[in-house]
Design brief:
This protein is mostly helical and 318 residues long. The chain folds into 2 domains: 6-108, Orthogonal Bundle (DNA polymerase, domain 1), CATH 1.10.150.130; 135-310, Intergrase catalytic core (hpI Integrase, Chain A). 58% of the residues lie in helices and 4% in strands. It has 14 helices and 3 strands. It has helices spanning 6-16, 24-38, 42-61, 72-84, 89-108, 135-142, 150-165, 169-173, 203-215, 217-220, 241-254, 263-276, 281-288, 293-314, and strands at residues 180-181, 186-190, 196-200. The chain has a 3-stranded antiparallel β-sheet. The longest helix is centred in the last third of the chain and has 22 residues, at 293-314. The radius of gyration is 21 Å and the shape is globular. The termini are far apart. Mean pLDDT is 84; it is low at 1-19.
């Protein structure tokens, strides 16, 4: 249970330590988002929380009582104060990255109208190459649900959809029946900032979505459902991100996969496998819903690293 919900443990620790300030609810939601959508390790989540708590406490001393009251100058002042106190450049860079991620999340969720960090330059020294699953591992994970059972069909449809489209788990659980067009083979999803995009579906995803719609979904609907969501839980309610996170974790362990397997890793794998197959970077950007091509370019670094590894392994003079 601890590995599934590390953000809860961290939140409880915060309560015990008496960490209470106006931005705490937003920080808790952000940590929840990082845990469920990205599957970050407890130590990483704790580091993000510490950075944001430090920022929030700094703001509180300046009489700023919430995220809506923060201005760009307040963020710059926080950075300058840490520089004067002798905090390392790496730590300061991490603070800025964390704060930017936090504000992007708040704007994407509709909690803020303006991102006060949008004009601040993000340091490049902390760029991380996303984790990616091999083709064999993807096949093993996607084949793990027992499709002789109704919920196994539903789970297979979810896994196939995540990998076939590169959609975020939050986008998949919010899909409505009207958002998928199986005859034409595409789905319509709404990403950050409620931006709409059309993404093609592969044959496998179409097959299991059709199977789910024909044989499973109607059996999950109860008189209490009152929902047009595509994916439902066993009580007929819209599926939650937490449920998908636990589901993927369970199937990964069932087939003996090592390491952290989480919903967003399927998105990373989708993008990387497309680029490895020769897909145009701009098309991948469009399917992922990235506003900047520079975000998508991060996946090209993986290809370079793999090429180096292959060269080193097989070239006689490597």
């Amino acid at each position: 249970m601890y590995s599934w919900f590390p953000y809860k443990i961290i939140s409880v620790i915060g309560e015990i330590c008496g960490l209470s300030f106006p931005m705490k609810p937003e920080i808790d939601l952000f940590i929840n988002h990082l845990s469920l959508d990205y599957g970050l390790a407890p130590n990483t989540l704790s580091a993000y929380r510490r950075d944001l708590v430090k920022f929030a406490q700094y703001l509180a001393k300046r009489g700023i009582d919430g995220v809506n009251a923060v201005k760009t100058d307040d963020v710059l002042s926080f950075i300058e104060t840490n520089k004067k106190q002798g905090v390392s450049l790496n730590s300061i860079a991490r603070y800025l990255v964390t704060i930017r991620m936090f504000y992007r999340y708040l704007v994407a969720e509709g909690r803020l109208k303006k991102d006060v960090t949008s004009l601040l330059e993000t340091p490049h020294l902390l760029s991380r190459i996303p984790e990616v699953l091999s083709y064999e591992t993807i096949d093993k994970l996607l084949s793990s649900p027992d499709t002789t059972k109704p919920l196994g069909i539903r789970d297979r449809a979810i896994l196939e959809t995540l990998y076939a489209t590169g959609a975020r788990v939050s986008e998949v659980v919010n899909l409505k029946e009207r958002d998928i067009n199986l005859p034409l083979g595409y789905l319509k999803c709404f990403g950050k900032g409620n931006k709409e995009r059309i993404v093609p579906l592969g044959e496998a995803a179409i097959k299991y979505l059709k199977l789910y719609l024909d044989k499973v979904r109607s059996s999950l609907i109860t008189k209490y459902s009152n929902t047009n969501h595509l994916f439902l839980d066993r009580l007929g309610k819209p599926l939650r991100r937490e449920t998908v996170w636990k589901m993927i974790h369970r199937y990964a362990r069932l087939v003996g996969l090592k390491g952290r397997i989480y919903p967003h890793i399927l998105r990373h794998s989708f993008a990387t496998h497309l680029l490895e197959g020769g897909a145009d970077l701009r098309y991948v950007q469009e399917m992922l819903g990235h506003s900047r091509v520079s975000t998508t370019q991060l996946y090209t670094h993986i290809n370079k690293e793999r090429l180096k590894a292959i060269h080193k392994r097989f070239h006689p003079r490597a």
